[in-house]
Amino acid sequence: MEYDIDGKVVLITGAGQGIGRALAAILYRRGARVIVADIDETAARRTALDLGERAHAVIADVTDRARMAAVVAEAVERFGGLDVVVANAGVTPVPATLRTMDPRDFDRVLGINLTGVFNTVHPALDHIVRARGHVVVVSSCAAFAPGMGGSPYMMSKAAVEQLGRALRVELAASGATAGVAYFGIVETAMTHDMLDADDLGRRLDALLPWPLSVRITADQAARTIADGIAHRAARTIAPRGWTPYALLRGAINVVLDGRLAANPTVHQLIHAIEDRR
Fold first, then answer.
1. Which residues pair with 10 in a beta bridge?
2. Which of 55, 167, 229, 261 is deepest in the core (most CB within 10 A)?
3. Residue 80 belongs to what domain range?
4. Which 8-state DSSP code applies to residue 197?
5. At what angle do helices 103-110 and 151-172 cross, to 10 degrees?
6. Is the peptide bond before 211 cis (omega within 30 degrees of 0)?
7. Phi-psi bin for 7: left (phi > 0), alpha (psi -120 to 50), beta?
8. Residue 167 pLDDT more than 70?
């Protein structure tokens, strides 16, 4: 099914930087009216200003349920409706095992990455149904990868995948659609902080074999989402090297989990993570 974004109203969370900012720019160029939502007011306003008069900045803390309902209401008031929602905002945890992690970090990651997606999508659904529009929830290839050292992120993204799958089925009766976006490693500030600027992060990154270690830019990730919206895609995955893993994960993970559990290099890495506490 083709879906022309020209003239549509799109709400994007986490749109002040990274994938969200790149997506806002692509959809704006394709004719959309864009609500640039971000917890960083300066970043949101700068993005909207750079885009032009069809963009509107809002401060959005996705963990604040009442605020997200107000953001949706503001979008509808500003542009007369709401056609597309992209729940993109997300964070990564401090590297830790389940035994050593700070429970507050667990709550923070789940609160933003999972509950924040619900808080974004839920108040918008009546408008999406009315417009026969489209919802995108941003999961991750981490949803089907082993989660050692960063399990709250993997858990949250696996749950977001299930949320998106449920939405796809539930919205079908109304003519609206939903899709799940999965990404491997994307070159963003969050990735650099987690993997490149941290010794343990670099060691975790080194465990990924080719082609799973291939990185893409935020622009490439955003274009994947934008093209997925144009086709009302149920799922989009980038880079493509993750596709076989996604399709065969039930069998692959049985073998992979056992090998990782028996791997001395992984044991050393886990000890190094726990020694940080």
1. 34, 84
2. 229
3. 9-275
4. S
5. 20
6. yes
7. left
8. yes
Catalytic residues: 153
Assigned domain for 4 exists? no
Residue 27: name the closest of 1, 9, 49, 13 by CA. 9
Query: Does 2 map to a domain?
Result: no
Residue 95 is which amino acid?
A: P
| pLDDT over 90 at 37, yes or no | yes
Rounded to whole angstroms, how far apart are CA atoms 100 and 157?
21
- For residue 154, what pLDDT is reported? 94
- How many domains does the chain divide into? 1
Q: What is the pLDDT of residues 176-218, one digit of tens each?
A: 999 999 999 888 776 666 666 666 666 676 766 656 678 899 9
In the structure encoding, which two tokens stand for residue 4, read together?
Answer: 């022309």
Q: Which two tokens stand for residue 181?
A: 């976006």
The CATH number for 180's domain is 3.40.50.720
The SS3 call for residue 231 is coil
